[in-house]
Amino acid sequence: MELHEEEVVDAELVDEDHLPAALTDPGIVLGGALGRPVLTQHTVLRPGELPTTQRPQYTPQEFYLSEQAARLIDEESLPENTKRNRRSQRGMFEDWCAEMGRVAVPCLTTTYIEYIASLIAQGRYSPNTIRAHKSAVRAMQPEDAKPGTTEVNRLVKEYAKNWHRRNQVKKAPPISDDHYRAMVATCDQRHPIGIRDRWALLVGRGGLHRRSELADLLLEQIEVEDDWVTHYVAMSKTDQNAHGEHTDIPADPDDPLMCPVDATRKWLNCLRRLGIRSGPAYRALTVAGTLQDRRTATARGDHVTGDAINDMIRGRAFAAGLPNWQDISAHSQRRTGAQRIAAVGGDPTKQGRWKAGSAVVKREYLDRAQSRAENPWLLVQEKRRTAKKTAP
């Protein structure tokens, strides 16, 4: 998961000794004494305008959040796994500062550099993990006292170059069409679990869904037509501001088993029989096919976690007898769908809700599909087949 930081420029008061003469005019008087103009680097004055010398007087109550605002902050819409990681990352930094005799909040830029350098020196963290720690530490600092990032960014950039020379990132494997069909075929359509899992497999691949997107999908965000299923993805990894986006998944009239429209209709009908007409689309079920009691699931409520989606997909891969079942995950579905689209000359960017011009899509799908299509060994094989056909 890759985090984005917001650069905050410190606003410092201008030293009175260095003010222009016009701004130290004795005529600017507050309460009978020379008032100190309130200037920051963001101050904008019109010609002839003088800055204010009056500072606002805050009441003690203004420094306290309301219960409603505090609750919203505490319940920020981040995955529970992300919140847990951030707490761990901040705790590691605080422990390191205590051990080194340094102040954790607000920390100095030198402390920030030293801490990230110490993580890099261990050599066991990936660049993305280092970036996550970097962001977590900076986010915990006050808005007007965040440490500088120039040297830290340079350190991480150099570390990433060396890391990728030594390590090949292991990616979730794609799933061949035959293997995917075998996974879907394990879903018993006489049982609610089988109906649910077939639906999740087919719309997961068709919509190129991340596991969190599928876990967060609501019934109110699903539209079914004769030839299409449309999902409204309210928020995603590349849409943290929740602008939302519609994703259309076509029916497959040539293969009823693999048709997302048919799978969606059957799962929605199954949910209605269970008394569910709103809320999370993917539901936790008992072995008997009834709804699980989620009253103790305080973090997600009726929503399952992304890990539960992964476990289901991996379980279906095992049931289908796939040789690499233990490596299959929700990302395998996303990667498989993106590869199929790229292989026929399409661009999976919008379908998978990547950012326009995504370097990942270009590198991992578009360029690789073109490279495979132009692979010289394919010409060798074609020549060999032609020679066999023309041989006496």
Which segments are poorly predicted (pLDDT under 50) over 5 or more consecutive residues?
1-19, 21-34
Number of strands: 5
CATH level 1 class label of the largest domain: Mainly Alpha
Ends apart, CA distance between termini: 59 Å
Q: Can you list the strand order of the major beta sheet? A: 3-4-5
SSE order: EEHHHHHHHHEEEHHHHH
Quaternary state, please? single chain
Number of helical elements: 13
Tell me the helix content: 40-55%
| Biggest pleated-sheet summary | 3 strands, antiparallel
**Whole-number radius of gyration?**
29 Å
Classify the beta-strand content into a percent band. Answer: under 5%
The CATH topology label of the largest domain is hpI Integrase, Chain A
Task: Return the average pLDDT rounded to an integer.
Answer: 85
Write a brief caption for the model.
The chain is mostly helical.
Report on this structure:
- The chain has 392 residues and is mainly alpha-helical.
- It has helices at 67-74, 80-100, 109-122, 127-139, 150-166, 177-185, 192-206, 211-216, 260-273, 306-319, 330-343, 359-373, 376-390, and strands at residues 29-30, 33-34, 222-224, 228-233, 245-250.
- α4 packs antiparallel against α5 (150-166), α7 (192-206) crosses α11 and α11 packs across α12.
- The protein is built from 13 helices and 5 strands.
- Strands 3-4-5 form a 3-stranded antiparallel beta sheet, covered by helices on one side. It has a two-stranded antiparallel ribbon with strand order 1-2.
- A hairpin with a 3-residue loop joins β3 and β4.
- One of its GO terms (biological process) is DNA integration.
- InterPro entries: DNA_brk_join_enz, Integrase-like_cat_sf, Integrase_recombinase_N.
- This is Integrase.
- One of its GO terms (molecular function) is DNA binding.
